Amino acid sequence: MRLLSRPLPAALAIGLVAQILFCWRLTTPHVLVFDEVHYVPAARMLRGLVGPVNIEHPLLGKTLIALGMTIFGDGPLGWRALSTVAASAVVMGVFAILWLIFGRVRTASIGAVLTLLNFTVFVQARIAMLDGFMAAFVVTGFAALLWAMRARGAAVWWRWLLGALLLGLAVGTKWTALPYLGFAGATYLVARRRRPDLWPGLHPLVALVLLGGVAMLAYFATFWPAFLYADQPLTLARLLPFQLDMYRQQTQVLPPHTYQSSWWTWPFDWRPVWYFYEPADGAQRGILMLGNPVVMWGGLVAVVAGIAAWVRDGNSRTGGVALLWIASVAMWAIIPKSLGFYYYYYLSSIWLALVIAATFDHWRQRLRNWDEAFLAASAVLFIHFHPILSAAALRGPGSFHGWMWFKSWV
Length: 410
Fold this sequence. Notes:
about 60% helix; globular; mainly alpha
């Protein structure tokens, strides 16, 4: 237990548990699930360098799915294996962020475990979609930038460059990571103004140029496989116009969808998405993209408490984490998408775990052991909902009703 009181062993232990949990029965079902029907065929085309497909998104996420297929074969394990690694990186990245901000293993562990127990990370860990990779790059990118915060000498520079690289790769996975570059730059400027000793030797102008420049180079580098296509290969002259083609694809008006929902409903767990619900592998199975109600609804209380900690007590660290969640939700009010879906809330659901851990840290004297009770309640619901998160065998087609708390969940 003394070993687990140190940050690195604790993070590795939680990460190992997460990886084992994500991999358990990973290949069930043995058929394509939800948006795997788009990304797995696109990964096959990328793997063979055949030609452009699924051009509305950048290439990196599909390249990583293709890499998994190259290592583990073109089957369920190959499709999903690297998604589990990305989700474990998210869990350990959350630990790192909280450790770097608050310096307490307990706070970091609470946030990491809540991330693991929040259904969204578990579900995205077990499907070949882009969001899981994008989130992993954003979370680890933020961790790297914070890692540079208290470094000295050359370490400040290379850790900052690492963070910029990871955020660029996040944008190279999915464009919705782009606002986080802005969040990172704004956080740096505000923190540096309050504490000039942070990121020593890294001038604000230089820091922002490096953040944007390295991220941009990393982003464009992710298009390298497209230059090798047998059919319609990308060229340098077409690289920038191709971005406009992607934008037009991203902003096209789509017909209504059964599972569409407005961005302001996502924090309330109002309209989850059935990724899968049909007979497969000899049984009725289901996968529901839903957030853990304890984390989702408790997190909203934590956001309010975090802002109060900032305004009333001057705790800018707790308030800053709460503000990150607010910004991550508010950005969807201006992103030009004709349809919204609950899984767009994925990154915001990760930040909620940080807000909860930060709030418990601020009021740790008054709320002594409440964090343990909160973890226990989250774990109980995780176990309860696990069958319809993991595609476990159900009794029959109507079995899902046992987990439907609201009509909007059906």
